[in-house]
## 1
Amino acid sequence: MRQWSGRILGTLIGLLFTPLGALIGFFLGWYFIDRPRLLNQRRNREAASAFTYHSPGSANNELLTLSYTFMGYVARGAGRVNEAHIAKAQQFMQMMDLDENARRVAISAFNEGKADGFDPSLGIAALRRLAGANGAITAYFLEIQVQIALADGSLQPGEQERLLTIGRMLGYSVEQIMGLIRIRFAEMQFEKQARAFRERYSSGSYSYRESSSSDSDGYSSSSGSSGGSYRGAGRTSADDLRHAYEILGVSPDASMEDVKRAHKRLMLKYHPDRLASQGLPPEMIKLYSQKAQDIQAAYNLIKESRHE
């Protein structure tokens, strides 16, 4: 009955006017309510199936293969695949909880992508066919490739060019790709800072505050449920704030309302329930848990710097 709710509602409203209005309402209800809902349900089912590994030869295996093939392709853009690239690829395997058979498939695909003569256009065509109209799959696929490119903390010209090539084939602009790269750089700086604070805190160099302060020399931690902060002898640096604004995708002179809207939008995008509703299974959702933490930490830092 829920699948017909738009048409039923449109028909009832139309009947308040004329029999013809009921017919018009029926079609409007289908086009604006029932049709979008059914399309979204179908995309979610396709995405869920695509991102679930089952057995060799399945569409699920094809998407897994494509993801790791392009990891190898992007990493090879640095001139050679280094230890950091391999470690990041292995980290993805662990986070996705791939079994031994799936790991062999992933490793073979990675080696294929890094080989000379690999044609990315064929892989992108296959990816677009698998993703269909579900843009979430291609968006998260691209973010994974950016992480591989920056695994060693630097971006070589060849890596950047390959990211731009993949992005253009998927319909992204140069500005959008460079934006993803800047955000990933900022996230990496946040990760380093968080480790440094944890180390200093465990050694007794920092004290923990359970409640947020309006002082600008605090750094908020997203790991605690209370949203507390680590407060040290030094003040929050300009680089910290710059990275925070980059993670949220707003400029330093943005209003606090704009900052709040950006924070809410990103937290919704990477919320586990939201990712699941887009068809991503738990294996893929785990890859983005750190992003949600970075987003929250960035927002807390900006709030404290503005005495909010």
Note: The longest strand covers residues 207-209.
## 2
Amino acid sequence: MIDLHTHVLPGMDDGSGSVAESLEMLEAIAAQRISHVAATPHFYAGENGLEIFLDRRAAAAAELRRYCRRAGLPKLLLGAEVRYFEGMSRTEGLEALRIEGSELLLLELPFSVWPDRLIGEVSELCRRPGIQIVLAHIERYFDRQPPELWDRLWKAGALNQCNAGFFLRWRTRWKALRMLERGRIHFIASDCHNPSTRPPRLGEALEAVGDLRGRLEENVRELLPALEV
């Protein structure tokens, strides 16, 4: 399995602050029998140009990989958690932010009511060749959006990622399992930021889903075939 959404690259965002923290998270992920980790630091178009971001990401990954050669650590793949911005469906170079070895682009939407222009923009992005949109941590938006907006995004072809905590909190676990059973959740990821307050817990979530885990593994095989997981 792959942890599709993590902030393990040191010094990139509000995630890992050091190589030591990154290694501690990767060791915890390895202990959960996760074979691949997508490093998805936040990309904010208004703060970093694409080239600047890619250079920073490459430098952070190179620094971390110097210490990742020990046996048993998951394979590190590069990606990004891309914050929505107007005009992104027409922006060149977004393909460089896809998760390595796939067409998956992890998209973070605003924590506000989504206007029609946003839904239209994301729908247009879903039709862009070579990009498969994955909506990040969708459980955070449920109380803010009317059901019809979700239907429009799902019909446009967006896939959904939920964080491990959605399956581990007793108040939300039943809803998470029902959505997974109905095919509304395509990926579970840890969205880990550090080893203490936001640690990787994907392994616990995979245990919690029980027999439904097969659906997640099928999505990984279909949408990330180059990983050979």
Note: The first strand starts at residue 2 and ends at 6.
